[in-house]
Write a structure and sequence with these properties.
mainly alpha
Length: about 375
């Protein structure tokens, strides 16, 4: 390999290595210093995410989805071209150069991801920002919270539109997307943290891929877009929308985003969003209660109204259609990603929202708020 080409390859490899090592150091530092991340990084990240969300909200489609698809196609074409060129010229450098450039691209993207948003995984979290601590809860406290949420879900199930099968029917994604801001706006009066620009979520065009992967949406920090899978049961769709929008606020961990979505749903002036928040939170608590005491869980289920039961059946039927190998692979990848971003519990972090829901209820009771 000529000297100039060798120097170029080495320089790119060194650049990739430097970016990767720097990124790893940043993640390690952030995981050990949540106060530092909270004090300066999270505010910066929220400001950037809000700015990007405002700019790219002018596109009626998900720009990030289009860019990712285009990048993948171009990258595959580039690698194939490199292989073909190496074969034709009987020179290994073109494919070697393509491989090095691909590695450099991924390290640059990873470093940018951490710069814009990724270090939020190590922040102190929304629970701290709203003055809430979530110590381990007793089964009795879990049962009480589940009962309260079941009662609220039953109450609001009677206030939302339903179809001929008595299943919640809110009109789908397009009918809901412009109602997403009110909950965050109401919360921001008490907690300024929720006051960032609430650009509406974007509909994913490649939703079948996400459905089979078991994914309800994805937040892309490079454009500040909260992307949502429109192929979701209407009773859960408002909660999913606010969950993805909560990531824009810096709620990186899934349990934190779930809790923020619940708070925003509860504060919304839309009965559909309130019902979705109560139903989603109830399901999290019910699953946790069933793992601790089947008899108590059965008692709660026996007290549910028929509309709530119909919605839960619809949810189960919807998700059962997409079970398979792709969903298992997606879960495994997501688990690895969460652990890599300093969340050692992996996908189990989705259950931590239950502790926050219990703590929030106990806090209200302690303050005499119903």
């Amino acid at each position: 390999m000529p000297g100039k080409r060798l120097k170029s390859a080495v320089a790119r490899l060194l650049c990739s290595a430097l970016l990767l090592v720097s990124s790893i150091v940043c993640v390690r530092f952030a995981s050990g210093n949540p106060e530092t991340i909270e004090s300066w990084y999270t505010g910066f990240s929220r400001a950037v995410s809000s700015f990007l969300g405002r700019i790219f909200s002018v596109f009626p489609f998900s720009l990030s989805e289009a860019l990712i698809c285009l990048t993948i196609l171009l990258l595959i074409s580039y690698i194939i071209f490199g292989i073909a060129k190496s074969i034709l010229k009987r020179d290994a450098y073109p494919i070697l150069s393509a491989a090095i450039n691909t590695v450099l691209l991924f390290t640059c993207v990873y470093a940018l991801f951490l710069t814009l948003w990724g270090l939020n995984y190590s922040s102190m979290g929304i629970s701290v920002r709203v003055g809430l601590s979530a110590p381990p809860a007793t089964v009795s406290e879990l049962y009480g919270t589940t009962r309260e949420l079941s009662s609220l879900a039953c109450e609001y199930a009677e206030k939302v539109p339903r179809n001929g099968q008595d299943v919640a029917d809110f009109g789908g994604f397009d009918a809901l997307k412009d109602k997403t801001a009110s909950g965050f706006e109401s919360l921001s009066r008490r907690y300024p943290f929720f006051g960032a620009y609430s650009a509406p979520p974007k509909r994913l065009l490649l939703w079948p891929v996400f459905s089979y992967a078991g994914l309800s949406g994805v937040y892309i920090p490079f454009t500040g877009e909260a992307n949502v899978n429109p192929d979701e049961v209407d009773s859960l769709l408002p909660f999913v929308m606010l969950h993805e929008m909560s990531h824009r606020l810096g709620a990186a961990q899934e349990d934190e985003a779930n809790f923020a979505a619940f708070l925003a749903c509860r504060e919304s002036d839309s009965p559909e969003f309130r019902y979705s928040g109560y139903l989603s939170a109830f399901r999290y608590c019910l699953f946790a209660l069933a793992g601790e005491d089947q008899e108590l869980a059965g008692e709660v289920i026996s007290g549910l109204s028929e509309p709530v039961l119909n919605d839960m059946r619809a949810i189960n039927e919807h998700y059962s259609r997409y079970e398979g190998a792709l969903q298992e692979a997606s879960s495994s990848i997501n688990d690895t990603y969460l652990k890599a971003m300093s969340d050692p519990s992996g996908v189990k972090s989705y259950g931590k929202v239950v502790d926050l829901l219990i703590a929030e209820r106990l806090s209200r009771e302690g303050a005499g708020i119903t």
